[in-house]
Amino acid sequence: MGGPDYSAQNRGFREVFKGVFRRGRERRLYTLSLAPSKSHFDEDLIKTPMGELREWRPERSKLAAALLNGMKNMAIKPSAKVLYLGASHGYTPSFVSDIIGKKGFLFALDFSPEVVRRLVLVSEERENMAPLLENAVLPAGYTHRVSRVDVIYQDVAQPNQVEILMKNVDIFLRRGGTAYLALKARSIDFSEKPKAVFKRAGDELKRSFEILEEVPLAPFEKDHMMFVVRKR
Ligand SMILES: C[S@@+](CC[C@H](N)C(=O)[O-])C[C@H]1O[C@@H](n2cnc3c(N)ncnc32)[C@H](O)[C@@H]1O
Asked: Is residue 1 part of a domain?
């Protein structure tokens, strides 16, 4: 009762998760930039009394798509340690870096030298982000450079996505930690119906995890599902 009017003060932005903002019913999100005035992806930068907000688009980020589609379990929060598999140029990783803030840390891994070049430039602007040129299928190659983490986020679009996740979870995810798996049905089996692919993946995940949520990513991404699971 009678508290400050943050919506007016902050130009209509409201915090929907810690470090994640939305304005009205816009189909996009915003994060508070850790690298103010820097835009690596042509995103809009908006000055507010809270700090500079960066526009985060669901058409470019499966994590933003899942949040806008109602995902409830958001373990990517201030201070979290995150291992990101399939970081590409760093679009979604840059927003993860904003959300976890200076007390968090992000290991951002990709096996393609072309995209890691740009990922390195993005990481140079952010003290909480380390780029790694590694293959997620071979975690032994980076055990000495990655610590135990609270969250693994995986978006590698490979046929053996579940197996890749398991390998990394066994080594890096703390017990009770959360993993996000952005599953692309057509990467797993082009001929099978997406529903059947998701059912099979869910059954496989259930053997090792508690499944917290399954969030379809349409209309932003066709035939994709975000699985949110917890390590027992
Ligand atoms: C769909 S893109 C990721 C987009 C990114 N997550 C984002 O939202 O900004 C998939 C990425 O996974 C990477 N990838 C595929 N297989 C991989 C593997 N075995 N190890 C590491 N990276 C892999 C690809 O090089 C590609 O950059």
From this structure: no
Task: Provide the 8-state DSSP code for 140.
Answer: G
Q: Where in the sequence is the domain holding 220, given as residue range(s)?
A: 62-231
Q: How far is the CA of 85 from the centre of ligand 1 (A)?
A: 7
Q: Are strands 105-110 and 81-85 parallel, antiparallel or unpaired?
A: parallel
- Ligand 1 binding site (Cβ under 6 Å of any ligand atom): 61-62, 85-86, 88, 91-92, 109-112, 115, 135-137, 155-158
Q: What is the CATH number of the domain that holds 105?
A: 3.40.50.150
- Pair 83, 192 in one domain: yes
For residue 96, give the nearest of 151, 51, 164, 45 by alpha carbon: 151
Q: What mean pLDDT is predicted for residues 178-205?
A: 89
For residues 85-106, average pLDDT = 98
Which of 43, 155, 162, 167 maximizes ligand 1 atoms within 8 Å of its Cβ, making it the mutation to test the pocket?
155
pLDDT tens per residue, range 112-170: 999 999 999 999 999 999 999 999 999 999 999 999 999 999 999 888 999 999 999 99
Question: Between vectors from CA 97 to CA 175 and to CA 68, what angle results, nearest 5°?
Answer: 85
